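Saturday, quiet lab. Running sequence design on the structure tokens for the scaffold JK sent over.
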């Protein structure tokens, strides 16, 4: 059979290759011979064989992002184009799958009809949350919005900002407000970036591509998730020329895969590596566990979500490849392999902040994984105050970022006043994808406008002018550890049997 790219094959030709010894499928009108790749498919061969000799586009789109199949298969697997004029009706079982997809994609769990408001009517981060709650699939909403066990840390992350007060200065000329900032030497139109968040395609078909395009339009930086739904190259190519990207890394238990990924990131022009260190064991996210996992996979890590006896938690099931042996001694290896600036994401104490600096990292992210890992861990802003109290020299030795619970321009300003170079914002941008690229741009503009307004009302005209005197933290100061004596963890040798 010819493999000429322009060669057209009939549906009858496709149907003849319908078993585990001779398996062809059609995806987006292109026919592929995947016989030799059945056993290596992360989701198992059975799901592919269900569509052997037929059009698997609907099932493929439910799980994968466009372009993955071309990247994963060698050119010789491509057999030609499917003649759409001869495509017959799908078999009954495939019709059922299509109906299920149509019923679940983008629908609310409510029995009432929900009309998504026009984008211009959304004027706050909370507005995007409300839209996402009513338009995402139940599983997508559970995956994005869930946090560990009782959601204590998740709520603390936001609540602590409300307890820190601003101390405005008046009678200043605030006609102009400058929000631009350099982050790891990369220009940004505002002191915030899009935090890495997995599987953005659950919110919109363009997923991380829409985030990249929105960042290009708004002059922001995107930290691409290791569990992104699109290939790393596709996300970067979706941006504009010279657009800076950072890459979030989960170290794979198969270190060779991490080595390959780091080298690829450097070759593609990634500017920094954000090593996530607070989720080597995924937290128990009960809302996510209660709903059966949708069959999705990451284009970068290859992780696949399914279901087991513990539930259908996508975060847990897709995080099984993460190396639990990761330690501080691995930082030099990551630095040498990537030859890029390294940022440690997930710092939750002054002691670990000091340790990170000792290992020569260029930045740290004070983060508790959005409350998704260890519940009742302290909010990130308290860790920021802890650095001021115990090791203020940190702010002169590396860049410090904060994420978790940031929903307002005043939140951003408070973090900057307490020494943060920039803040990371994750969930809100996932929710903004309910409107695609335009949603990303609109949310960016809302946050920028709120920040500028807050700056002017506080009496400053440049983000670099924000300092500790701008805030009153006395309502939370008593919660901040007073010395390194609070770093009470002691490693003990294993007891002899």
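Result came back. Writing it out in full:
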């Amino acid at each position: 059979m010819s493999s000429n790219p322009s060669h057209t094959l009939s549906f009858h030709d496709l149907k003849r290759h319908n078993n585990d010894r001779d398996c062809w499928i059609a995806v987006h009108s292109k026919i592929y011979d995947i016989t030799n790749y059945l056993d290596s498919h992360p989701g198992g061969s059975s799901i592919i064989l269900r569509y052997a000799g037929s059009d698997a586009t609907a099932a493929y789109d439910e799980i994968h992002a466009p372009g993955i199949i071309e990247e994963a298969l060698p050119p010789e697997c491509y057999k030609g184009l499917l003649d759409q004029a001869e495509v017959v009706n799908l078999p009954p079982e495939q019709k059922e799958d299509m109906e299920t997809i149509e019923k679940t994609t983008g629908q609310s769990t409510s029995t009432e009809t929900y009309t998504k408001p026009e984008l211009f009517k959304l004027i706050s981060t909370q507005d995007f949350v409300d839209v996402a709650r009513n338009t995402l699939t139940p599983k997508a909403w559970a995956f994005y919005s869930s946090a560990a066990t009782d959601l204590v840390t998740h709520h603390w992350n936001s609540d602590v900002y409300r307890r820190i007060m601003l101390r405005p200065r008046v009678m200043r000329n605030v006609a102009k407000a400058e929000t631009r900032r350099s982050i790891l030497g990369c220009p940004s139109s505002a002191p915030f970036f899009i935090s890495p968040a997995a599987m953005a395609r659950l919110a919109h078909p363009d997923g991380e591509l829409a985030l990249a395009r929105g960042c290009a339009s708004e002059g922001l930086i995107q930290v691409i998730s290791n569990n992104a739904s699109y290939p790393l190259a596709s996300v970067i190519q979706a941006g504009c020329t010279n657009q800076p990207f950072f890459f979030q890394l989960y170290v794979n238990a198969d270190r060779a895969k991490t080595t390959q990924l780091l080298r690829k990131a450097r070759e593609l022009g990634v500017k920094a590596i954000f090593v996530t260190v607070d989720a080597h064991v995924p937290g128990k996210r009960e809302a996510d566990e209660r709903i059966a996992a949708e069959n999705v996979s990451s284009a970068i890590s290859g992780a696949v979500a399914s279901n087991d006896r513990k539930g259908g938690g996508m975060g847990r099931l897709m995080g099984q490849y993460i190396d639990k042996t990761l330690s501080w001694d691995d930082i030099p290896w990551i630095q040498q392999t990537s030859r890029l600036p390294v940022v440690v994401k997930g710092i939750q104490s002054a002691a670990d902040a000091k340790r990170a600096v000792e290992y020569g990292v260029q930045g740290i992210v004070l983060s508790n994984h959005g409350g998704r890992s260890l519940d009742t861990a302290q909010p990130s802003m308290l860790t920021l105050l802890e650095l001021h109290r115990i090791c203020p020299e940190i702010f002169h030795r590396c860049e410090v970022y904060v994420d978790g619970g940031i929903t307002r321009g005043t939140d951003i300003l408070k973090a900057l006043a307490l020494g943060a170079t920039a803040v990371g914002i994750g969930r809100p941008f996932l929710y903004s994808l309910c409107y695609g690229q335009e949603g990303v741009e609109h949310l960016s503009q809302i946050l920028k406008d709120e920040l500028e307004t807050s700056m002017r009302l506080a009496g400053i005209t440049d983000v670099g002018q924000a300092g500790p005197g701008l805030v009153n933290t006395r309502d939370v100061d008593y919660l901040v550890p007073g010395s390194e004596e609070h770093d009470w963890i002691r490693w003990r040798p294993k007891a002899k049997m």
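Notes for JK: The first strand starts at residue 8 and ends at 9. The radius of gyration is 24 Å. Ask whether to fix the surface positions before the next round.
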